[in-house]
Amino acid sequence: MFRFFILILLSVNVRAYQSGIVVPNNLLSKALAFFKDNDHLIANKDYIGIIDFKSHNSKERFYLYDLKNKTAESYLVAHGKNSDTDFDGYATDFSNTINSLQTSLGFYLTAEEYVGQNGQSLRLDGLSETNSNARQRAIVIHGADYVRPRSKIGRSFGCPAVELKYTDQVIQKLKEGALIFAAYE
Predict the structure, then answer these.
(1) Which residues contact 131 (CB under 8 A, 6 or more apart)?
(2) What does the buried/exposed string (b/e) look like for 90-99 if buried means 16 or more CB atoms within 10 Å of the residue's CB?
């Protein structure tokens, strides 16, 4: 029975120990510098979320960086439908405007977890001029059935939506005041 439990535990956590996941160094450096300079604002000091919106949306471009173990996990993540008006999989336009249906860049703090129209979700508060309307725009992390491996994934109304099967895993690691850096560099 004990061996069976260990096998289940190992299979559930295999993504946390994948080798070869490399967070883009320029994004990681900026996120770590912001974390250090704003340590007093950040309650969850276990993980930093980093989203590389310059990458194609078929790539796992949402990184959860484990600050203690210096390892990373990566996930698919959607961008706003009006950030990619030709639907080629690349986000090129960004906005902080309410009803823009575009992705907002910058630094965020995760806030409260809740269950809404998209199921389990995590509210985000923008810390940058480029995302200061995140709460009013209802920009949240949530799962979506249009986020799944394929040549290009669906688009959101501006939220960083993840694969449904990883929603809980991502939210549990980032909830309660973690830093997220959404970038296009």
Answers:
(1) 96, 104, 105, 106, 107, 108, 124, 139, 182
(2) bbeebbbeee
Radius of gyration of the chain (CA): 16
pTM greater than the 0.85 cutoff: yes
The region, left, alpha or beta by phi > 0 then psi within -120 to 50, assigned to residue 28 is alpha
Instruction: Please name each of the domains of the chain with its CATH number.
Output: 27-183 (2.40.440.10)
Q: Alpha-carbon distance 79 to 87, whole Å?
A: 11
Residue type, 57: N
pLDDT digits (tens, 9 = 90+) for 47-81: 999 999 999 999 999 999 999 999 999 999 999 99
Structure tokens at 119: 């199921």
Closest CA to 61 of 122, 142, 149, 120: 149
In the 8-state DSSP scheme, what is residue 128? S
Both tokens assigned to 143: 């799962």
DSSP label at 43? S
Amino acid at 161: A
Phi, psi dihedral angles at 121 (to 5 degrees) = -140, 165
